[in-house]
Amino acid sequence: MSRGRSTRFMVPCPFPTSDVVLDEKSKAIRSVKSPVGTGRYDVEILGPEEIPEVLSIDAWEDLRRQSRNPDTLYQSALWWDHLCRVEPPDHLYVAVVNDTQNGAIVGVVPLLYHLYRFELRAKNHTLFRAELSAVAVLGSEPLVPSRDDVYERLVDSIWSHIPQCNCIYLRSVDADGSFARFLENTREIRKLCIVYAPEGRRTRHFIELPETFEQYLAKFHSRTRHTFRKQLRQLREHTRGTLELVRVDSEAQVEEFLTAVKYVSSGSWQHTRAGVRLENDPARCDRMIDLARRGVLRSYLLASRTERYAFMIGCQHGGVYHTITTGYDQALRQWSPGKILHYLLIEDLIEHDRPRLLNFDLGDMSYKELFGSVHAPDLGFLLLRKQWRNHLLVAGHASMRKSLGFLKRLSRRSR
Length: 415
Known about the structure:
15-stranded mixed β-sheet, globular, single chain, Aminopeptidase, 37% helix, 14 helices
């Protein structure tokens, strides 16, 4: 297999809608006051009911289309409208950046208030856990002018207008971009908050999808292509020709799909190691139906007449396919269901309404490197209020993470 190239690539990634409903005491206090000014630019925080008075859908979408961020789905007016339907209204905000010289809106940053689980895990053990009231910057890379003073005022305005917020969560930031450099290197941001990257530098994986599946397969060595086809042939023979990849993109398919997802996820490694199981609950079903109505749902199920092997929950928007959650039944791993799912999924993406890019979710799993063609460095950030408790939390997490890393390196050397 030929390795994909490394490139500077903006890689903020989706923040899934929260399943946590905060109690009354934890809800954010909305306080929209006068804008926070920077000289040329000012920033104000608005609630859902105020957006139509200030910002048109066309202006919002014009800003989104100018961005190189592959995750602009999560910064789009479409996704915001989806969140307004499935999230409590007092959990939703938008930061709007105005150019004071001409009155133009030059930045839109959708925000979601939620509980963030600040934790450190080793296989199926939780070594560190704390819950923080957080504001997630959807898309992670703010859709604003790339200026340090704008970044600074954006953070400052979030602290000022959402006083219940204890931290700002940036799930995935381009490690070589201007926003990451601002967070890591500028004195001004460290006066405002504690800046911490809980996982350090990571690698994100993408696929630039060519016009044909044969062109995509050309990136692999002939032996790898032969292995793919052999594994697919063996599984088809095992299922007596009933194996199929089902594309799920309509409302009518959602409930049956989630029933299959629940079954498969109960036997997945995520459930075995971490107790993660996707339930077919009404809220999840309602969210997926809403995404199907908006034309962005594109999920998959690998199944035969008698078995459910693997699934992918995903969305497609603006020429980008986003993988959100995937899993396979470990009891059937001899048939390589996860690998076959991705092989057939990529073929379907290329042959039916082809996006230009497949965006893998976080996690540096080996299959992502195998299938990926673009590999880019990223960082996840927590910006915490400067309080003693937060200083202690960060110090404790960093110490345990360093110790765990040392033990892992020691274990590898002793093998």
